[in-house]
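Deliverable D2.4 — example input (C-alpha cells):
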C-alpha cells in the first residue's frame, strides 16, 4: 500500500472567518449548545467563571483599547509572554479582531530567548504577567521596543489588560473588524508559533486562521461531537463537562485543544497557571474536572506519586495524552488510577497545527502504545530508509497531507523546503501503521539508537524501566562504544522509598542499579539491554510541553563516559 487514508472530512469548514469569528460568533453543525450555567473558563484559585457574553465583551474591549492606545492594526504582531491566564484567550482573540498576528512565548524563556523571538517576529507589543515582567522589559529594551509597549495581565507597574478592556468598553469604536474574502483564511497568518528544535534556534511556524479552525472540526468529526452515537453517560465530549487547562497555552497542544477544541465542544476549561502536581489533584476534586489533557511526565506522576491515593479521581471520564509517546505499560498502570476514564493518545505537531491522529470513540481504552487513528481528512505515507513506501506493519518516516498544515517557516526557505515537500509534511517521526489503521510512533528518527546495527527506540526502554517499582521517571540516551557503535544508558529518578533505603544503606544504590538492569534484561532482547549502565538523577529535564530534553542528558552521559575511558 502506498498511502493510508483517514476517514474523509464531511463537515463544512469556513474559509472566510478569522479564528476569533469562528469560535466567538459562529455556529456549526458539530458544535453543541452549551448549557447556560456552564462558563467557558474558570479561574483555578478563585473559581470565578467567565461566560460567552463576558468573553465577547472583554475581547471587544481589549481590541478597542489596543487600537486606541497602541494603534494595533492589520498584520501587527503581538507577543504573549505569560503563564496561563483567564484573559489569555481574550488577548489572542482581541488581536485577531484587529487583523493582527499572535506569537506565544514560553514564560520560562530568558531575556535572550525572548529577544530572539521579538526580533524574528517584529513584535509591536508584549502582553506578559508580573511574574515574567522583568524578563519582558529587558528583552523589549534590547529589541528597541518602548517599555510602555509591555503590558500585563495582572496589576503591575505597567498598563494592565483589564484597564485597557475598561478603556475600550467606555470609548467609541476605534476599529472596524474586517470580514475575510472567500478563501482568505487559508493564507492570512494568525500565529507565529516557535517550534522547539533539538538543534539550532527555534523556527517560526506561520499558521493561518484556517488551520486551527479545520483541525477543531476534524477532531469534532473524529470524536463524534454533538452526535447521539451512545447513551449520554458514555459520550466522550458533552457540553457542561469540565476540562483541566493545565497544558501551557503557548504550546500548540494547549492552544488548539486546550482552548479552542474544548470550548467548541461546550466544555468549561479550568485555567491553571502553573502545574504543581498535588495542587493539580486538588483542582480536579474542587472543580469536578472530568477531562484531562496531559503529557507523559504528568501521567508518570499520576501512576507513581504517593499523594494520588489521597484523592478521589473517580469523576475523571477522559484522559488524552499527547506531545510524546506513552508506553503501553504506563497505560496499564493508569487504568488502575482512573478506573472510570476513557484513556488514549493523540499525535500531532506544530507544523500540522495540532492533531494528526487520535484514539477513537469506539473504544474506552486506546490500543496500548498506539497514538490513535488518522483523523478525518488526513492522508499518510510511511517512507523507508531507502525511499520506498512501507506497507502495513513496516517502519519508516511518517509523512502526511493535512488540511490544517502550516504555511511554512517564516524567512527560512531552506527549512521550509526540507519539511514541506510537494504537499507532504515530513514529521521526522518513525512510525508503524497497522491494518486497523492504528498509528504507533516508534520514536523521533534522530533519537533512534543504533546498537550493533540494530535500531533501539529510547521510548520503548523507558516504558520498560518505568515498570520497575523503584523508578519514578527515566530517560534513555546513547553513549558511544567502539564495538557496538552505541549503547543504551538510563538516567533514572528514584521513588522516595528507594531514596530512603539508600540513605540508610549507601550500598543499596548499586543493588537498585543492578535490579533495573536485570529488569530490562529479563524483558528485552540482548541488544536492548542497558549495557551503558544506570545513573541516578534528581530530575529528568523536559521542555514545557513535556518532551524529554535528551540532548541535556546526552551531554551529561558523554561527560560521565570520558573519565571511564581514561581508566
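Example output (designed residues):
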Amino acid at each position: 500500500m502506498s498511502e493510508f487514508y483517514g476517514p474523509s472530512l464531511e463537515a463544512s469548514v469556513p474559509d472566510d472567518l478569522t479564528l476569533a469569528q469562528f469560535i466567538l460568533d459562529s455556529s456549526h453543525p458539530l458544535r453543541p449548545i452549551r448549557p447556560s450555567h456552564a462558563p467557558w473558563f474558570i479561574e483555578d484559585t478563585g473559581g470565578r467563571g467567565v461566560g460567552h457574553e463576558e468573553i465577547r465583551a472583554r475581547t471587544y474591549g481589549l481590541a478597542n483599547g489596543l487600537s486606541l492606545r497602541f494603534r494595533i492594526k492589520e498584520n501587527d504582531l503581538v507577543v504573549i509572554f505569560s503563564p496561563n491566564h483567564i484573559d489569555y484567550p481574550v488577548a489572542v482573540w482581541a488581536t485577531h479582531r484587529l487583523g493582527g498576528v499572535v506569537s506565544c512565548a514560553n514564560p520560562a524563556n530568558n531575556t535572550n530567548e525572548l529577544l530572539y523571538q521579538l526580533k524574528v517576529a517584529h513584535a509591536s507589543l508584549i502582553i506578559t504577567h508580573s511574574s515574567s515582567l522583568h524578563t519582558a522589559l529587558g528583552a523589549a529594551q534590547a529589541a528597541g521596543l518602548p517599555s510602555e509597549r509591555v503590558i500585563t495581565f495582572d496589576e503591575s507597574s505597567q498598563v494592565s489588560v483589564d484597564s485597557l478592556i475598561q478603556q475600550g468598553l467606555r470609548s467609541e469604536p476605534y476599529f472596524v473588524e474586517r470580514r475575510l474574502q472567500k478563501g482568505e483564511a487559508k493564507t492570512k497568518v494568525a500565529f507565529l508559533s516557535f517550534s522547539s528544535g533539538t538543534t539550532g534556534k527555534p523556527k517560526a511556524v506561520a499558521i493561518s486562521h484556517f488551520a486551527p479552525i479545520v483541525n477543531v472540526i476534524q477532531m469534532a468529526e473524529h470524536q463524534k461531537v454533538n452526535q447521539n452515537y451512545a447513551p449520554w453517560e458514555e459520550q466522550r465530549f458533552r457540553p457542561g463537562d469540565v476540562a483541566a487547562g493545565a497544558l501551557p497555552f503557548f504550546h500548540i497542544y494547549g492552544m488548539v485543544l486546550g482552548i479552542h477544541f474544548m470550548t467548541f465542544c461546550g466544555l468549561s476549561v479550568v485555567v491553571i497557571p502553573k502545574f504543581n502536581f498535588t495542587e493539580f489533584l486538588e483542582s480536579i476534586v474542587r472543580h469536578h474536572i472530568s477531562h484531562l489533557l496531559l503529557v507523559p511526565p504528568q501521567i508518570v506522576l499520576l501512576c507513581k506519586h504517593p499523594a494520588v491515593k489521597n484523592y478521589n479521581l473517580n469523576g475523571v471520564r477522559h484522559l488524552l495524552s499527547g506531545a510524546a509517546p506513552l508506553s503501553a505499560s504506563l497505560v496499564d498502570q493508569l487504568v488502575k488510577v482512573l478506573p472510570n476514564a476513557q484513556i488514549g493518545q493523540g499525535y500531532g505537531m506544530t507544523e500540522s497545527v495540532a492533531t494528526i491522529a487520535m484514539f477513537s470513540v469506539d473504544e474506552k481504552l486506546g490500543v496500548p502504545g498506539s497514538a490513535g487513528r488518522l483523523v478525518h481528512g488526513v492522508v499518510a505515507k510511511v517512507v523507508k530508509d531507502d525511499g520506498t513506501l512501507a506497507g502495513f506493519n513496516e517502519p519508516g518516516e511518517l509523512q502526511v497531507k493535512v488540511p490544517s498544515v502550516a504555511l511554512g517557516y517564516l524567512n527560512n526557505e531552506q527549512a521550509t523546503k526540507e519539511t514541506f515537500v510537494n504537499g507532504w509534511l515530513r514529521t521526522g517521526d518513525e512510525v508503524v501503521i497497522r491494518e486497523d489503521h492504528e498509528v504507533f510512533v516508534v520514536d523521533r528518527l534522530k533519537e533512534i539508537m543504533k546498537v550493533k546495527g540494530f535500531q533501539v527506540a529510547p521510548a520503548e526502554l523507558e516504558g520498560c524501566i518505568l515498570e520497575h517499582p523503584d523508578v519514578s521517571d527515566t530517560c534513555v540516551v546513547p553513549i558511544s562504544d567502539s564495538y557496538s557503535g552505541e549503547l543504551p544508558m538510563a538516567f533514572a529518578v528514584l521513588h522516595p522509598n528507594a531514596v530512603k533505603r539508600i540513605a540508610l544503606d549507601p550500598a543499596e544504590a548499586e543493588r537498585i542499579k543492578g535490579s533495573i538492569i536485570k529488569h530490562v534484561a529479563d524483558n528485552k532482547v540482548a541488544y536492548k539491554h542497558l549495557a551503558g549502565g544506570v545513573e541516578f538523577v534528581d530530575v529528568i529535564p523536559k521542555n514545557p510541553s513535556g518532551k524529554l530534553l535528551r540532548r541535556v542528558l546526552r551531554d551529561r552521559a558523554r561527560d560521565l563516559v570520558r573519565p571511564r575511558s581514561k581508566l
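The chain has a mean pLDDT of 92.
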